[in-house]
């Protein structure tokens, strides 16, 4: 799994807001073909405890749990793009929708199990994602890096 983590956001599908958060993090989540629940568990744990929020001295010293932040999780298979050859990205490393959708749902459920408020986009829909990249802070998490 690969995730791009940024600040507050909202997701709109056909002019209707389907997910929105205030203070917290938006997670653009790509599910790889060989991912399973173990990867989702690791990524949720890493994300909830990653110290990417500032303390009173302006230092990254607080986690999402510390600041009681919310999550907006948006499925994004394009994070698994392979651009190594040619000019057209290959998405063969991304999980097929029938495998990715349950893992996407599982990811959100695992975060909720840790008493985190989780909003989501609509899996497989064409979405407009609006986000505030505060700082700016952008963190990339990949289960292959563990």
A few lines on this structure:
The protein is α+β, with helices and mostly antiparallel strands and 146 residues long.
Descriptive account of the structure:
The chain is an alpha+beta fold. Helices cover 21% and strands 30% of the residues. It has 2 helices and 10 strands. The protein has helices spanning 37-49, 97-113, and strands at 2-6, 9-13, 16-20, 24-30, 53-54, 60-62, 70-75, 118-120, 128-131, 139-142. The strands form 3 sheets. A 5-stranded mixed β-sheet has the order 8-7-4-1-10, covered by helices on one side. A 3-stranded antiparallel β-sheet has the order 3-2-9, with no helix packed on it. The protein has a two-stranded antiparallel sheet with strand order 5-6. Helix 2 links the parallel strand 7 (70-75) and strand 8 (118-120). Helix 1 packs across helix 2 (97-113). The longest helix is centred in the C-terminal third of the chain and has 17 residues, at 97-113. It is globular, with a radius of gyration of 15 Å.
Which properties best describe this structure?
146 residues; alpha+beta; 30% strand; globular
pLDDT below 50 for ≥5 consecutive residues: which ranges?
none
Strand order of the largest sheet: 8-7-4-1-10
For the terminal residues, how far apart are their CA atoms? 11 Å
Number of helices: 2
Shape: globular
The topology string of helices and strands comes to: EEEEHEEEHEEE
Described by its quaternary structure, the protein is: single chain
Rg, rounded, reads 15 Å
Sheet having the most strands: 5 strands, mixed
Helix content: 10-25%
Structural class: alpha+beta
**Mean of all residue-level pLDDT scores:** 94
Beta-strand residue percentage:
25-35%
Total beta strand runs: 10
């Amino acid at each position: 799994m690969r995730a791009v983590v940024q600040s507050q956001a909202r997701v709109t599908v056909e002019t209707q807001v389907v997910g929105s958060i205030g203070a917290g993090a938006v997670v653009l989540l790509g599910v790889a073909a060989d991912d399973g629940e173990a990867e989702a568990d690791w990524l949720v744990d890493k994300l909830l405890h990653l110290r990417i929020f500032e303390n009173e001295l302006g230092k990254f010293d607080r986690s999402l749990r510390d600041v009681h932040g919310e999550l907006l999780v948006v499925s994004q298979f394009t994070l698994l793009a392979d651009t190594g050859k040619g000019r057209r990205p290959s998405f063969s490393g991304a999980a097929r929708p029938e495998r990715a959708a349950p893992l996407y749902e599982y990811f959100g459920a695992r975060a909720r199990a840790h008493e985190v408020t989780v909003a989501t986009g609509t899996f497989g829909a064409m979405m407009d994602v609006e986000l505030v990249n505060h700082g700016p802070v952008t963190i990339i998490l990949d289960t292959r890096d563990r």
